[in-house]
Amino acid sequence: MAESLTTKITISVQASLVNPADLVQGAAPLVYSKSFTWTSGVVADTADRVFSDTRTIAASGTDDLDLAGTLVDALGQTLTFAKVTAIIIAAAAGNTNDVVVGAAATNQFATPWGAATHTNKVKPGGLLVLLARDLTAYGVTAGTGDLLRVANGGAGTSVDYDVLIIGRSA
Predict the structure, then answer these.
(1) Residue 65 needs a FRET pair 20 to 30 A away by CA distance; which of 11, 14, 72, 141 works?
(2) Residue 25 lies in a domain
(3) Looking at the predicted structure, is the pLDDT value of residue 66 above 70?
(4) Would you say residue 151 lies in a domain?
């Protein structure tokens, strides 16, 4: 039996803006939810690869995640992503420094950022979510565009982060 992957990501926001007055109270409740589902496959709106891990980066250090050939999934299989459909980076709340995503020294996976030097800072306790559902998704080019850098944004202390990468092999 061949393995298959079904993935669902749900983002939910609930907020309530309240303005108390003397005789009445104004309120504006907000409930927003968006779900993204990928079935198993290698076409638009599908995925067949997933990587997840909790990692630590030393003070002033970097962690280059090779999307084409060195990451290993939960079943012990080496992963080669051709397309990335989702990246989630969650910085531990106890971090002192930011977790910086993007801008590897060489072979940059720059597709989500638009340029090899662009980055996103994830503050302690923060979350970075990138999603692509179309056929092209975020393209990975083995050997020249496959390193996703995750770096410690400062000196003095290490940082911890969770990473989830969902994508396709073709």
Answers:
(1) 11
(2) no
(3) yes
(4) yes
Q: How far apart are CA 49 and CA 4, in angstroms?
A: 9
What domain range includes position 120? Answer: 42-168
Q: Which of 90, 24, 81 is nearest to 54 (CA)?
A: 90
Residue 4 located in a structural domain: no
Rounded distance between C-alpha atoms, residue 150 and residue 61, angstroms? 9
> Between β-strands 7-20 and 25-40, what pairing exists: parallel, antiparallel or unpaired?
antiparallel
Number of domains composing the chain: 1
Q: What is the mean pLDDT of residues 105-131?
A: 96
What tokens appear for 33 in the block? 């939810």
User: Six-digit token pair at 82?
Assistant: 């051709």
pTM: 0.93
> What are the pLDDT digits (tens) for 10-37?
999 999 999 988 888 899 999 999 999 9
- Let me know if residue 91 belongs to a domain: yes
Q: What is the DSSP pairing of strand 46-47 with strand 25-40?
A: parallel
- CATH number (domain holding residue 49): 2.60.120.10
Tokens 């250090």 sit at which residue? 61
